[in-house]
Amino acid sequence: MQAIEALKNAWRLPDVRSKLLFTGLILVVYQFAAHVPVIGVDRNALQAVLESNAGGLVGVLNLLSGGAVSNFSVIAMGVYPYITASIIFQLLVPVIPQLEAIQREPGGQEKIQRYTYYLAIPMAILQGVGQIAIFGNLGGAPIIPEFGQNPLVTITVISTMTAGTMFAVWLGDLITEQGIGNGISIIIFAGIVASAPSNLGNLLTTSTQPVYNAVLFVLIVLVTIVVIVFIQEGIRRIPVQYGKRVRGRKQYGGASTHIPLRVNPVGMIPLIFAQSIITFPAILVNLFPDGPVGQTINTTFGNQQGLWYWGSFFLLTAGFTFFYAETMIANQNLAESLQRQGGYIPGIRPGKRTQEFILRVSRRITLVGALFLGTIAVVPGMVDLLNSLLFPTEFVAGAGTLNAASVITGSGLIIVVGVVIDTMRQLEAQLVMRNYEGFMR
């Protein structure tokens, strides 16, 4: 009831209402674009790919693009080339001194952002070529028959798909600037939510065990959401004491507070990045001639099967979690800020020792967050294993089809929950500024 009343209060405010309506309008535009197909697509070949790989790479790409892959639309790649470019710069900035210097100078973050846009274009071209090639290999027939043979068709398709990706990124930036929430995350969120009903319908109508899958789906969603909220809101408080200062007849400081360190300080970012990276081996291998190594990579990473795929996904997710948590703590310079403000952690020397202590505590609690995110990422693999044990004959016969955890993947669920929580917080901040009671106490 409190959340409903807060939403009503938000809707009554003209500027907040405008932001909400603008965000909704941009999402409608995105969904329209998701139904504009690329020129020359063979619908029969595309349908064969969708049916044969519903629970694999194609199913995940379709889920995260809001159904754009099922139409092979101009935004079939979604915003993932941009995310890949962001990953590359996140990794390069700490390594290359020139980039680090650019980032620290006034306006440096905007320059890095502009370079990310430039890099997203070749990434989109590369992913577009690879995606068309891998779809052709999975379906047994090219989904765009003249692609690679007719130069005009090839250039048109690649240009259109690249422009579609940059258009999706632009829509995300518009939401960030003039709407509510992080635009890129909301674009991905909208794609997941838009595709989930049709995926659930496909699961229940094509499965030989509809009751089992329906119950398992509800159970997975409920348990996962509870665990996600519990971990996302988990905080370790480090006590901080401020020394007393006397100026004239007045005494300042002496207060006690704490530094809140979250169990999962980076939210769903590691999952989004890991999902982008894990799709690349299957895309890259299709740019080269066929061979036994390429077929193995296609089977593993294209169909999202086996220990190598799920193990790599788990390690990537956990690794990105540690990397981003470490980067965030380092960029915040908490020890330096405390020392400048006259604060200290009881029992710990100010300066370097304080920074080392904060990093040590952060790494311990981030381990829990990394294991949590990694486990969430591989839930579909666990369900595949469970299905293979319970229904071995049906599982082998139906390999590549959806399972209950693939309707909304674990990574999809944490993106949805994370975006909802983040958007609620932003709305709450808007309400608190205007003396309304927020969503959460």
Write the layout of secondary structure elements.
Layout lengths: L1 H11 L1 H20 L9 H10 L4 H8 L3 H4 L8 H13 L4 H8 L3 H32 L11 H28 L4 H24 L3 H23 L2 E8 L1 E4 L2 E4 L2 E7 L6 H10 L1 H6 L6 H11 L3 H27 L1 H7 L2 E2 L7 H26 L1 H12 L1 H6 L12 H24 L8
Antiparallel strand pairs: 1-4, 1-5, 2-3
Helix pairs in contact: 1-20, 2-9, 3-8, 6-8, 6-12, 7-8, 8-9, 9-10, 10-11, 10-20, 11-20, 12-15, 15-17
- Helix/strand class: mainly alpha
Main β-sheet, spatial strand arrangement: 4-1-5
Described by the principal axes of the CA atoms, the overall outline is globular
Q: How large is the radius of gyration?
A: 24 Å
Q: CATH homologous superfamily, by name?
A: SecY subunit domain
What's the total number of strands? 5
Distance N terminus to C terminus? 13 Å
- Tell me the β content: 5-15%
Main beta-sheet strand count, sense and barrel state? 3 strands, antiparallel
Tally of discrete structural domains: 1
Query: CATH first level: which class?
Result: Mainly Alpha
CATH topology description = Preprotein translocase SecY subunit
Average pLDDT metric: 77
| Uncertain segments | 396-400
* CATH architecture title: Orthogonal Bundle
Helix content: over 70%
- Count of DSSP-assigned helices: 20
SSE run: HHHHHHHHHHHEEEEHHHHHEHHHH
